[in-house]
From TrEMBL, chains A, B:
GO cellular component, one term: cytoplasm
Subunit structure, as described in the record: Homodimer.
Protein species of origin: Echeneis naucrates
Organism placement in taxonomy: Eukaryota, Metazoa, Chordata, Craniata, Vertebrata
Keyword tags: Catecholamine biosynthesis, Decarboxylase, Lyase, Pyridoxal phosphate
UniProt keyword Lyase present: yes
Protein name: Aromatic-L-amino-acid decarboxylase
GO terms for biological process, alphabetical: amino acid metabolic process; carboxylic acid metabolic process; catecholamine biosynthetic process; serotonin biosynthetic process
């Protein structure tokens, strides 16, 4: 949607909202529908090709407004996450369907998605341990639990363990900054020998520093063997898996007893928000952790099994109607449009990579798989820190650094919807100009 | 703002956004400002009288756009929560000011505000205990910690304790459904005698079932004496304290060593979102709990003390620019406009109360202080359950029940911005009509 269409559609939407406010008293106080009404009103998969905005707005009145905020908010979310699951070619067991045990939930942020999975895993571990040592208190068991994640994992994983009050160990990575099975296995064996209870692994597909991919085909069987919950943090790379050429990076998801998957940062440019999703095979695993049913939250379909109460799947009680954005985006772009967008972003990163590789003063520091290019000037960390300072002070582009194997590395990320080849070329020209100036300075 | 003005302003805003998108390349990549730039550009208090929408929009370009998303998002939030603090006549120590140690943060939801305060209190308690028993591990201390809240408290308080992995005890209430000092004191003494460590009290001002007010003037000194963190959950009643006649309900907040305050549900009709705020006297108390600083989140003002990093104050990492809504609402209504709105809502509740009191078949079940009326038909719980069923099935109004002293009670809540006396009269007529029909049925 270009700015011109945005003006037109935006103003139509303002009129729609104003009309709603003016006539709200004519609308029913709450809907007269059976649980599950929504699924049969819309297709079971996202369209391949874009649909028109008019058609989507027509469906607002047909599909959403009769179900108002509730149950439409919940039911659209369930179906949209099924659409997304199918776009990702997830195994059938992760799809809610009409009677599935799996399903997804939109979490507020990726940090909350990870935290929620860790808390659910903690609860499951305590119940399991108590079946064979019933005299142990919950808190005693907490003190023995140990979680694992990559030394390259996002800080939110360590923070989740701090909040959950459990130990976390950082698994060293291989030369590609990925966690391998043998490193995890070794740590788990050590910890078991020390009387600890390994219960949770957070693997990352697309790490923050360098977009590395932990080897989940190796980690999965270890998790299964040790009764550990495996959560996959794909907050950055997740959405790229809707392209068949990137889908193999998710291979290994099939075999696990429990998998959380969050992510879809890549699509956030469409959504105006990131869409962290927790996806589980057995919904009772995640619901069981913190279910509370005071009288003021009871409703008549509570025990029917027909209704999904997303409040049990998350930290907050209230929730926003974020699946509406998924619905609009999936339909306005179509699967092919979304794939094209991801491919374009990756192509722009590859374009930047080849500019770097063609300049012998620079080096590429990690494989470029998606939209992130890790690079640096050959030379000292200080030299690269000075280059970044020059870039920051000139305020033309914005780069965030990282540390890889003790080296200070610059990160070039494609993330705006409107980025084109000319921006890549301008950015590189700017960087090489500043590099030229830097290398002219007397102390270099 | 009526629907007509909403149409006009909404369309202007669409144009503003479209223009931003079209010309984004002309804007600086990031702002060239010193930390703290925003405070001197706007008044230090909310206006008493409404300001014009034009004036506020002019300030968007003058105050916000030069500071873009960051630091404007953070700095406006700090100042808006100071405005709110002054509207609430909070003690100086809760105001951030230019060098204060206090301050506020907008949390995602009330549940998160409570959770965050409990986690911060847990962290503080562990550090305190470790100063005199340095051999105890964190998890050992967790197992001894005990939190307290009212038996009438919202389910999110118990859920916070479950997430934090600490024990929670429910304090019985008096005949007004309020927690009193002696009940808390008794429990604390019992628990200390049993070797436990009391560390946290969540008091409620305006409980969910009946809008009861815990006696914080009695609870505060006990918390201080026992080194317990006192959090005040005023999620419902909080915003009414901007009216001098309701402010005494918050008396007792002054004396505490640490106080969290969340709430402002009442204002949510303006905000289109609830605004749960955590407010602390010592910001290090809340920041200390989960501070993490990986390289990709470092910035040059990190250690200067000039910058507030709200990510340390909350569960998620990212955050929305919600203080913009506060800024618009405070200015478009003015303090007097907001007070008038709250008074109108309370008056409507009082109107409903007198209708109930005039009908001898009914009784009022709890003092009507703000916008909630708890009432029931004199008679059995079954009778009242049947009345609620009739009300629900007729779909004219929506009531949520509660249980008070074992009695099934109906709750009538004023919560829409546009509710008028005629809606109250219609609702009561509807309820009495259904009551008439119910009492005609053969089994009554």
């Amino acid at each position: 949607m270009d700015a011109e269409e945005f003006r037109r559609r935006g103003k139509e939407m303002i009129d729609y909202v104003a009309e709603y406010l003016e006539n709200v008293e004519q609308r029913p106080v709450y809907p007269d529908l059976e649980p599950g009404y929504l699924r049969s009103l819309i297709p079971s998969e996202a369209p391949l090709e874009p649909e028109s905005y008019e058609d989507i707005m027509k469906d607002m009145e047909r599909v959403i407004m009769p179900g108002a905020a509730s149950p439409a908010c919940t039911e659209l979310e369930t179906v949209m996450l099924d659409w997304l699951g199918k776009m990702l070619q997830l195994p059938e067991s992760f799809i809610a369907g009409t009677d599935g045990q799996g399903g997804g939930v939109i979490q507020g942020t990726a940090s909350e998605a990870t935290l929620m999975s860790l808390l659910a895993a903690r609860c499951k571990a305590v119940r399991r341990v108590q079946t064979y040592t019933s005299d142990k208190s919950e808190v005693e068991i907490f003190s023995q639990l140990v979680a694992y994640t990559s030394e390259q994992a996002h800080s939110s994983v360590e923070r989740a363990a701090l909040i959950g009050g459990v130990m976390i160990r950082k698994v060293p990575t291989d030369s590609n900054y990925a966690v391998r099975g043998d490193s995890l296995k070794k740590m788990v064996e050590e910890d078991k020998a020390a009387g600890l209870i390994p219960f949770y692994v957070c693997a990352t597909l697309g790490t923050t520093p360098s977009c590395a991919f932990d080897q989940i085909t190796e980690l999965g069987p270890i998790c299964n063997g040790e009764n550990m919950w495996m959560h996959i943090d794909a907050a950055y790379a997740g959405s790229a898996f809707i392209c068949p050429e990137f889908r193999p990076l998710l291979n290994g998801i099939e075999g696990h007893s429990t998998v959380g998957l969050n992510g879809f940062w890549y699509l956030k440019i469409f959504f105006c928000l990131s869409t962290p999703v927790n996806r589980v095979k057995k919904r009772t695993d995640i619901i069981g952790a913190f279910k509370m049913d005071p009288l003021y939250l009871k409703h008549e379909n509570q025990e029917s099994g027909l209704v999904t109460d997303y409040r049990h799947w998350q930290i907050p009680l209230g929730r926003r109607f974020r699946s509406l954005k998924l619905w609009f985006v999936f339909r306005m772009y179509g699967l092919q449009g979304l794939q094209a967008h991801i491919r374009k972003q990756v192509a722009l990163a590859k374009e930047f990579e080849s500019l770097v590789r063609a300049d012998k003063r620079f080096e590429i520091c990690a494989e470029v798989v998606l939209g992130l290019v890790c690079f640096r000037l050959k030379g000292s960390n200080e030299l690269n820190q000075n280059l970044l300072k020059k870039i920051t002070n000139s305020r033309e582009i914005h780069l965030v650094p990282c540390q890889l194997s003790g080296r200070f590395v610059l990160r070039f990320v494609i993330c705006a919807r409107t980025t084109e080849s000319r921006h890549i070329q301008q950015a590189w020209q700017h960087i090489t100009q500043l590099t030229f100036e830097l290398l002219q300075e007397p102390n270099h």
